[in-house]
Amino acid sequence: MNKNFLLLCCRRVVWACLCFAGVAAQAQEVVGLVYSEHDIQLSGPVVGLVQRVLVRPGDRVSAGQPVIELEDSVQRIEVKRRAQVFKDNSELDASVERLELASKLWKISQEVSAATQSISEEELLKLQMEISAAAGKVLQLKAQKVREQLEVEGAQADLALRTLRAPVAGVVTDVLFDPGEWAKLGDVILKMVDLSQVELRLNVPPAFAAGLKRGDTVPAVFESAKGTSVAGVVKFVSPVVDAASGLVDVRIRYPNPRGDIRPGLKGTVRATKSGTGG
Prior knowledge:
By secondary structure, this protein is α+β, with helices and mostly antiparallel strands. The protein has 5 helices and 13 strands.
């Protein structure tokens, strides 16, 4: 009886080991491809002659840093011209002074007319018309100054278009124009990538995807990280299964402060059908 009991226990242990091996066999490594957070092809918003190239491939640039300058001498002159017109307040000042003098004259004339009756009603009406005309001129010139200020800002904006700036922080990967070359509208002048974060794109079985949701932390091992696990955050799990492959598109974002994880490398996520694991 004891021998049969021991035999039964051994069989149960063997069966449990086989079940564990089956579960372990379900564990799988899913391999994906690394993409940069931003892969930018910078083109000029205006037609122009490339005047200066301020960066070279491999240079790190900050957001807003000038990278390419187009020829802008005409635009600089236009900014100065419009700024000078805006600063000239001589006509407005003269009109304001004329209005003040007309108002004083009308007031004095009213007082004299009330005291001596020596000024006719017609003359008083003419003075009132002069005041109205002077006031209208002042308002017109003030409105003109507002337009002139807008024209200055427009000229400054047009000038700013001649300086191409990095839209984000990143690394310059290619410069396609040299100084003296003519860049047409829409021509790609410079290429850059943002490597501060990278995105691992995976095509995974539906059972794997079912255990993921946006915001989950998922570790991965990259070719360039020497086997070190890097924690990332799930940013996208496709709600549909690709009809051709039967797989689900998953995208996970990983920090890359030193730029070690380069776009184009492979990243591996180890997971089971019921969830993820490192």
